[in-house]
From TrEMBL:
It comes from Prolixibacter denitrificans. This is Putative peroxiredoxin. InterPro entries: DsrEFH-like, Sulphur_relay_DsrE/F-like. SUPFAM superfamilies: DsrEFH-like. Gene3D superfamilies: DsrEFH-like.
Amino acid sequence: MKKFGFLLLIGLLLASCNQKPKQANETDAQKPMTAQTEAPRDGVFIHITQGYDDPHRVLMPLKMAAMMAMDKDVVVYMDIHAVELLVKDAKDLTYADFESFQTYVKQLVEKGVPVMACPTCLKIAGYTPDDLMEGVQVAQKDKFFNFTEGRIVTLDY
């Protein structure tokens, strides 16, 4: 019985030594910084290469970009055949249950999401930067890395 009482006493002492004392006047500013610091937003880099020949591969990533832009930093980069969709006189692209291509681009630009065209692909397709629809930018390599403070996830279509 003495052994049990001794073990109980040791257990209670250990438990009381491991508790942080409560301070009634501790403010948020005095709490550890890790509790207040938010992690930087992660970024999503969406790469689209397809054009009119594969509307699903164009519209699916744009739909994802619009959804992810609510709580992530997003960049849409379009090259190869996709640049043909980004010019002012381009025919709009539609498919199944998606919004149209131009609707997605407009939504993304309004949300501040950079929609970028490959300058070399634009030139090969016979266009200049002046031919791009409103809000679309010519891609610059620095913007590929500076659009977010967090991690970068790449989705390639």
